Structures are given as structure tokens and as C-alpha cells.
Amino acid sequence: MQDYGRTSSDCRRFAIARDTKISRTTIRAIYYEEAENVKLSILIKICDCLNCSLSELIEYTPYA
Fold first, then answer.
1. CA distance 15 to 35
2. How far is CA 53 from the centre of its chain?
3. Among 2, 8, 29, 50, who pairs with 35 as Cys (CB 3.0-4.6 Å)?
4. By C-alpha distance, which of 58, 46, 41 is closest to 19?
5. How big is the CA angle at 51 (ends 49 and 53), to the nearest 5 degrees?
6. What is the pLDDT of residues 2-61, one digit of tens each?
7. 9 near 24, Cβ under 8 Å?
8. What are the domain boundaries of the chain?
9. pTM (two decimals)
């Protein structure tokens, strides 16, 4: 498995997109918190790639 923590954020996003077969546009939208309605299957692929839990990847903030 590739180490995603030691390169620039652009390189990490490209590598994650390549390894998960998720589009770079989607990865970018998630990274910059611009994505809406992201499928759970995509989040699971990213978690598997990064070897992390879903709660480490996202944070729930209720509407005010």
C-alpha cells in the first residue's frame, strides 16, 4: 500500500484517485468540502485506500 502522508496534497489526491478509480474531480470536491451527496461506496473506497475509519474521514455537524 502506498504511503499517502508524505507528499503534497495534490500528489496525494491524484494517487488516491488513481488507486480507488474515483475521478479526480470527485476527490477534489470532497477535499475542498464542495461535494454534496457523496455516495457511501465512494467514502468506503477512500477509507480503505487511506486505511482509516469513516469517522476519521468525515465529521458530522448538525444544522444550526
1. 19
2. 11
3. 29
4. 46
5. 110
6. 555 555 677 888 999 999 999 999 999 998 989 999 999 999 999 999 999 999 988 888
7. no
8. 9-57
9. 0.78
